[in-house]
Design a protein that fits this description.
Elements: H1 4-14, H2 16-34, E1 38-40, E2 48-50, H3 51-112, H4 119-153
Antiparallel strand pairs: 1-2
Length: about 160
């Protein structure tokens, strides 16, 4: 019988570089296909994760961004709507103020600009200002009187009638 074992050992000894290169290639291939590749996590770069985990993490982050984007879009729409309501309210108040200025100060502006002013306009504007002042004063006096009466009913007295 032939001694195959010694012949193989002799051939390995003679072709030592080829054998070592082949074994090294097999080890490298085994490592390449036997170990999973990893990369740094998107949320925690100090942690290594597999390819599947990486894709899952990416999809989760994208869905969170989409949700946050929708929330921000809704907030922006509400902000724009609130802005439009506020701007309309300011415009309305500006128009009301201008009506008061026109009504009360229109005569004064006309007189200061050197244009002639009709007596009817002076009487109307003056009467409007007088009635407005009297109304405001009347409301203030009534509130002050109500406060004094309420305090007297509760047994408290005010020192000085000017306190409100």
């Amino acid at each position: 019988m032939k001694d195959y074992f010694h012949q193989i050992l002799k051939w390995i000894s003679y072709n030592r570089g080829k054998v070592f290169g082949g074994i090294l290639a097999l080890v490298v291939v085994a490592i390449m296909f036997g170990c999973q590749i990893t990369t740094a996590s998107l949320t925690d770069p100090s942690r290594e994760i597999t390819e599947d985990q990486f894709h899952q993490e990416y999809n989760l982050l994208i869905s969170e961004i989409d949700r946050d984007y929708l929330l921000l879009e809704k907030k922006a729409e509400k902000l724009v709507a609130d802005y439009e309501i506020g701007a309309a309210n300011l415009d309305k108040k500006r128009e009301q103020r201008q009506e008061w200025v026109d009504l009360a100060g229109g005569v004064i502006t006309t007189a200061l600009s050197g244009n002639p002013v009709a007596w009817g306009d002076i009487v109307t504007s003056g009467g409007f200002l007088l009635v407005s002042g009297l109304l405001a004063g009347s409301v203030y006096d009534q509130r002050k009187k109500d406060k004094v009466i309420t305090n007297l009913k509760m047994g408290r007295s005010l020192i000085g009638a000017a306190q409100v």
